[in-house]
User: Fold this.
Amino acid sequence: SQFRRLETSQASRRGFLKAGALSTAGLSLAQLLRSEAAAAPAATESKAKNNVIILWMRGGPSHIDMWDTKPNAPAEFRGEFGTMSTNVSGIQLTDMLPHCAKIMDKWSIIRSLNHGDAGHSTGDQFCFTGYGPGIAPDENAHPSCGSIAAEQLGKLNPRLPAYVMIPRMVPGTGAAYLGVSCKPFETQADPAAVGPFKVQNFEMADGLSVNRLGDRQNLLTGLDKLRREADASGKMAGLDRFGQKAYDMLCSPEAQKAFDLEAEPQKVRDRYGFMPAFDPGASNRCGSPAWSQRILLARRLVEAGVRLVTVDLRWWDTHVKGFESLKLGFLPRFDLAYSALIQDLHERGLMEKTLVVAWGEFGRTPRVNNDAGRDHYPNVFSAAIAGGKVKGGRVIGASDSHGAFPKDNPKSPLDVLATIYDHLGIDTKKQYLNDAGRPITVLPGGEPIKELF
Assistant:
């Protein structure tokens, strides 16, 4: 048959942690590897060397207050921020993004995205899968782009997962009918948490465990101790080949290095930024005070060989005191972290193989509301994109004078997904059987945005 349905297990894999470990959610790493072996034939071995970072700005970033300013519009549309020129003639951004403006030649903007769903979770589903939601908007009815990449292309590095979520899944990022082996690993441990990035509990077969390994030295010491104790007790000899593979993954230098954020030089961490929210009770309104460190971890992971990393940069849902939230929280933080990521990838020679897409499920209303914020708005919005074949310093499409509707060259989230799949070498015409036995095409429409190339 031209269709192949992946076998699933009743267990679910949850939480690939800093050392390449799996958090306890009913499935040990060894069990997951058994599931992968059963579900993924040799044909899913790596077919390409490219990878992707998705910076998911959940909640919906305001296009007018970031990437598509309207300086000549009435005040109730243009908002409180000014406009500044970039290092590319003719392209302007909000004056809240000075670092991004200085490197505009290294990234581009899509200003004419649109769709018809103003719901957070349902919009998430469309942007990650190309399809609308099923019965439950928080659960995937169709596989995410990361799950499709994991199924079709497999792993770039055999000691690291193909698909990672930092820190955990959001609606739209699941595997649906592709099964457990195509779900993302969730770091669970969060670089944005207060204090050092620590490893949570993880467990292997036969009860081998490492609990609360903290700083880098404790991590290395703990893993060495675990190996010595396991060898001395004879447990290693009793593990099956999948348990041995899981153990080797946990202790591999590649996994330790990739997830060891504490090994990053402090000047690099500072370059990405680590700014607290403007008041202790405002972290939800202004975003996590350290999600910039999640972005740095994403760079480490793609550099080590993870194929697709999605970073949760929530919560851009700026209905109330939106300008205050953007000015004192979101925009300075994003400006530092995004510009640092793009420059970092360029300096490390990773930009040609790494596509970076920063976007959310929709934009914000062109008219400012009575609470100094903007509301959900899918009728037109923007995205930032860089890397791979994308040329920097380009603007694709345009919105009208109020930022209310596409004026020129409208684009759909399907086109963004097609661009991601084109970069990875995904067959978008391939079909998989859903849970009802119906063949479903990877992507129901859309074309790579060739104007970016």
Observations:
- The chain has 14 helices and 18 strands.
- The two ends are 36 Å apart (CA to CA).
- The longest strand covers residues 51-56.
- Residues 322-347 form the longest helix (26 residues).
